[in-house]
Amino acid sequence: MFFALDVSERDGWQVVGVTGELELATAPRLRQQVVSLAGADCVRVILDLSGVDFIDSVGLGVVVGALKRTRGRGGDLRVVAPQERVRSLFALTRLDEIIVVADSVEAALMASAIDPAGSSRPEDQRIDG
Amino acid sequence: MGEVRLEIPARPEYLGLARQVVAAAAAVEPTFRDERIDALRIAVSEATTNAIEAHADLDSDERIVIRCNLEADQIEVEVMDRGTGFDAELPAMPDPTASDRLDNEHGLGLPLMRVLADEAEIRSDEGGTAVRLVVYRTPRS
User: Fold this and answer.
1) Closest CA of chain B from A109, distance in Å
2) What is this structure's pTM?
């Protein structure tokens, strides 16, 4: 199964591009990447899932863990998921209420942060790129 | 109409194969819409992930059996493993705003099965666990 990670820097954010299927066999690699970034004090992270053609609960769990690692250190995590089959899972699990889910890296960069206390409305965070 | 049976080693690298076989079987006949097949792929992935993890917990090298039964108006998939102690209740989706939500990376698999499959049932006893998933060709409200 092809799976690849690519890390780049953009406007002070670490953009982690994910390509392939994000599930039990591959998710540990993404988790390790986020742990490495957090360990290096890089806690403003954008997960670019544009190249992900499948994600399940294990992949979503790693995203939740990444959110905790970044916000717990004063940073933030945002997700890029332009394709409906991935994006719909963030809606179905309501994770889009606590994570910015954008259509492009540019839109993720421009998005307002979601208040962890839940005072901001999730529909305000849906920015098309 | 037809039954497809797959046995896989209980290892994560075979999870994708299980999804591929079930999705390919669903695409044969009748023609299910892509979103129906996507829902089935995710539900099967969740059930098979649980089975793989159950065998890992038991340190079992027995194979996981996936049976796919194609009918004119539905697909029934059963994922069978040797794990026990499975809670037969399918929980609701956890509240993402709960104060402890970020403490747990798990907890989405069973709710996703419940939401994505038109029927989802878990049977568990000393001999193992069987998860039965049914996806209709046309969702019934």
Assistant:
1) 23
2) 0.91
ipTM, 2 dp: 0.91
In a domain, B98, yes or no: yes
Q: What are the pLDDT digits (tens) for B65-122? A: 999 999 988 999 999 999 876 666 788 898 888 878 778 888 899 999 999 999 999 9
- B106 touches A at CB < 8 Å: yes
B 74-93 → A contacts, CB under 8 A: 93
CB-based contact B49 A97, cutoff 8 Å: no
Question: What total of structural domains would you count in chain A?
Answer: 1
Domain limits at A45? 3-125
Q: What is the CATH number of the domain that holds A24?
A: 3.30.750.24
Domain of residue B21, residue span: 2-136
CATH classification at residue B48: 3.30.565.10
| Residue contacts between A and B (CB atoms, under 8 Å) | 76
Q: B109-127 burial, b for 16+ CB within 10 Å, e for fewer? A: bbbbbbbbbbebebebeee
When divided into structural domains, chain B yields a total of 1
**Chain B residue whose CA is closest to A53:** B38
Is residue B56 included in any domain, yes or no?
yes
Residue A103, classified by CB atoms within 10 Å of its CB into exposed (0-12), middle (13-18) or buried (19+), is middle
Residue B141 within any structural domain of the chain:
no
Chain B neighbors of A64, CB-CB under 8 A? 101-102, 104-105
Q: How many CA atoms lie less than 13 Å away from B65 in the CB half-sphere?
A: 14
φ and ψ at residue A39, rounded to 5 degrees = -65, -25
